[in-house]
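Quick one, tokens below. Sequence please?
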């Protein structure tokens, strides 16, 4: 944490790190091009600060490629403070424009000339596939352009030789998420936030009037936003460019809407991507759909077109962290590049930052469009990637109920229970489990109020319609308790006999994990527990062993980041003020650390990285230095259990005393607001998909035992379903036991600690940073047997 070096980093490793990655003598140009997207500023900030940190010069190129062609005051050197306070701003502060000139060789000649004059031979381009293709062409032509400029005497031969190679790294900024090879593009998550805010608001008015709403979302060529928002709000019908409805869809849709009304549903939501088409490639418009519903069914129907609202507003926590990680990775990639390195894209696969060959990704993205033009829609969906395919299949399963007569009965009863503290997204998980269970032929039973309710027999069969509209609800509708089953084993076993429970799905946090262990330990004495049991992790603390992420932690993070934004604004107004903010999380520092990264904090104190009075002292000195610059405010996050003695009050008093005359202090404890609120789109989607997957696992286990009447005794029948790096994994709870620190209720190894140096570098501390393998470019989309964990 201290001003020179982090306590975890011996001096030598920092020196070695900076030698390995020296940017001395390098000049990097950063530009945003094409349509804007929330989070572009976070990427620009990360590129500028990481570049300066390793000793390179970084230049803003204003107005995209147009600024590169026009040169002059459009290309300006950036310093540390030029990217202060932009993390929370939507759009892009360096401007973006569509540029015709750059499409001509003359335009590119001018651009090359302007870059060479400043010695810029590394480009970081943030934009969509068009912008990245432009950068690729520019890179391939570079040496030819310089020869021509030297021939015409516009640059000297020395300049042409010295700057003979251009290196390009791209980051995809596009709300449509239409780029192949990357799971999420910068801006997609924020656009989903805007859409879901609108849908939640429309649902309340539609409820009141029994209306049907047709919502049109962006996506001319890509249905990602439409698909994921339909999943996240449980829409009745969705229209996508990649997967047009079958012939006769008009009648099918009307039947579906009237069936839903017959089930006492007071509203219908239909989501349309702006590029929606039918199987003959003719557009399907929202007005057309409205007309159809009004004439066929006579429902009161309204159309809402969201338009550019989706591009606006402040970036979500996810987009800020994604863009910051990618920006730092982009600079590292540029510093490691050799003259032979092809243009690459930094992107996200599961939870890993990876580098992919730029042109392969672009070609694959264009393949999708080609497949759609040629009406090969199955191919289009496949080319979009496994995460898109998964989303589509999950949506179909959860939206359309087959008639009972068509579902083969399994004669199995499956219980669903929530355990631990409430987390946003739990209800989405329950809904998905119930509906997938019913579609697999099981009877689904809801257990109310955790294991306490289980013991008292608060168990009811729950139907398809009972969970309608649950995805957007925060907290836990079933009710949840921290009580472990240990106290009530006899009663729980008796209730399981009474209701004939043949499998159990537990949704919850660390208590759920411990419940799993307790139940599996007691299998010898209670044969009722010899059934498949699966746990889906749901807790804002994100402290469950066996998974990188839990349902609810994204919503909690967004609450922290929104609050920090407001607090920073207040601090900027009063000047020379430092805020100390306490976050939840028990002993797990995930919320404090990631919140610090997303909110641009100066320090985050966590239990996993011990700190002492010298670290606190050096943080105070760091803030004193900062107050001499134009950024006169500070933000410090502290995890609630990071230290027994360095309490929030202690740190507040220490900072107040040490900062006397330089800055004053305020403190803020965020408390339970982090657990509440409507779930974020990420948590709704993650909860839905992971829980649907858990039910499929339960079904396959139950199918194995059909007719054998066998008891489940093996360890692999009690599992935690988690996301690990890039895959969804079922891990026996017995194996996870040795990876767990039970005293502090956290896993022994946590992936996000690797991102800790990122926050410190962006806050101007000198630390070393684990760099990924230099020249490794990954192939695009190898289809392994494992399950993709793309969210």
């Amino acid at each position: 944490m201290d001003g020179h070096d982090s306590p975890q980093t011996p001096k030598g490793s920092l020196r070695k790190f900076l030698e390995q990655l020296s940017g001395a003598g390098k000049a990097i140009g950063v530009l945003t091009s094409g349509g804007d997207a929330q989070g572009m500023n976070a990427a620009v900030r990360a590129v500028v600060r990481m570049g300066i940190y390793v000793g390179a010069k970084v230049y803003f190129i204003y107005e995209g490629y147009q600024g590169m062609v026009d040169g002059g005051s459009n290309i300006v050197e950036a310093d540390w403070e030029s990217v202060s306070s932009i993390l929370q701003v939507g759009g892009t502060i360096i401007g973006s424009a569509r540029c015709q000139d750059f499409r001509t060789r003359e335009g590119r000649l001018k651009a090359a000339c302007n870059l060479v004059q400043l010695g810029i031979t590394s480009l970081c381009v943030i934009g969509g596939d068009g912008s990245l293709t432009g950068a690729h062409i520019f890179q391939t032509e570079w040496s030819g352009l310089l020869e021509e400029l030297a021939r015409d005497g516009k640059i000297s031969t020395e300049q042409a030789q010295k700057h003979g190679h251009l290196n390009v790294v791209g980051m995809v900024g596009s709300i449509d998420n239409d780029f192949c090879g990357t799971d999420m593009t910068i801006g997609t998550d924020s656009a989903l936030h805007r859409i879901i805010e609108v849908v939640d608001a429309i649902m309340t008015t539609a409820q009141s009037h029994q209306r049907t709403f047709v919502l049109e979302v962006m996506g001319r060529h890509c249905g990602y936003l439409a698909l994921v928002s339909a999943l996240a709000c449980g829409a009745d019908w969705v229209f996508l460019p990649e997967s047009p409805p079958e012939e006769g869809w008009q009648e099918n849709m009307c039947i579906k809407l009237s069936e839903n009304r017959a089930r006492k549903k007071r509203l219908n939501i239909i989501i349309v991507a702006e590029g929606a088409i039918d199987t003959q490639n003719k557009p399907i418009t929202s007005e057309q759909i409205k007309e159809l519903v009004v004439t066929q069914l006579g429902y009161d129907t309204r159309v809402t077109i969201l338009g550019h609202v989706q591009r606006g507003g402040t970036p979500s926590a996810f987009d800020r962290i994604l863009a910051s990680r990618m920006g730092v990775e982009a600079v590292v990639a540029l510093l490691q590049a050799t003259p032979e390195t092809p243009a690459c894209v930094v992107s996200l696969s599961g939870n890993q930052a990876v580098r992919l060959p730029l042109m392969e990704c672009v070609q694959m993205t264009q393949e999708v469009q080609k497949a759609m033009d040629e009406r090969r829609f199955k191919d289009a969906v496949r080319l979009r990637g496994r995460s898109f395919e998964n989303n589509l299949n999950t949506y179909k399963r959860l939206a359309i109920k087959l008639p009972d007569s068509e579902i083969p009965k399994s004669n199995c009863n499956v219980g669903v229970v929530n355990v631990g503290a409430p987390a946003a997204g739990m209800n989405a998980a329950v809904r998905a489990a119930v509906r997938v269970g019913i579609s697999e032929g099981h009877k689904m039973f809801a257990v109310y109020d955790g294991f306490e309710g289980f013991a008292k027999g608060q168990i009811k069969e729950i139907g398809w319609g009972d969970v309608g509209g649950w995805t957007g609800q925060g907290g836990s509708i079933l009710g949840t308790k921290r009580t472990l089953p240990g106290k009530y084993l006899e009663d729980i076993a008796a209730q399981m006999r009474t209701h004939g429970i043949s499998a159990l799905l537990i949704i919850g946090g660390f208590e759920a994990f411990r419940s799993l262990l307790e139940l599996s330990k007691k299998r010898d004495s209670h044969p009722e527990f010899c059934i498949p049991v699966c746990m889906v992790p749901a807790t804002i603390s994100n402290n469950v062993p066996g998974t990188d992420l839990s349902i609810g932690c994204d919503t909690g993070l967004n609450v922290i980041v929104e609050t920090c934004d407001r607090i920073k604004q207040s601090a900027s107004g009063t000047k020379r003020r430092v805020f100390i903010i306490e976050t939840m999380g028990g002993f797990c520092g995930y919320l404090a650390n990631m919140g610090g990264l997303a909110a641009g904090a100066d320090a985050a104190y966590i239990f996993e990285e011990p700190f002492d009075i010298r670290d606190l002292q050096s943080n105070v000195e760091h803030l004193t230095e900062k107050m001499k610059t134009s950024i006169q405010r500070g933000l410090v996050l502290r995890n609630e259990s990071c230290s027994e003695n360095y309490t929030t009050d202690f740190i507040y008093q220490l900072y107040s005393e040490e900062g006397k005359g330089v800055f004053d202090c305020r403190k803020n404890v965020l408390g339970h607001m982090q657990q509440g609120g409507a779930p974020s789109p990420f948590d709704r989607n993650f909860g839905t998909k992971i829980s649907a997957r858990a039910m499929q696992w339960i079904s396959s286990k139950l199918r194995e035992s059909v007719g054998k009447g066998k008891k489940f005794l093996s360890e692999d029948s009690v599992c935690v379903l988690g996301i690990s790096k890039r895959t969804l994994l079922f891990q026996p709870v017995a194996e996870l036991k040795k990876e767990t620190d039970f005293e502090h209720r956290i896993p022994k190894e946590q992936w996000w600690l690797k991102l800790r140096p990122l926050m410190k570098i962006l806050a101007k501390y000198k630390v070393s940073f684990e760099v990924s393998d230099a020249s490794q470019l990954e192939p695009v989309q190898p289809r392994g047997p494992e399950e993709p964990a793309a969210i």
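The first strand starts at residue 27 and ends at 32. The mean pLDDT is 91.
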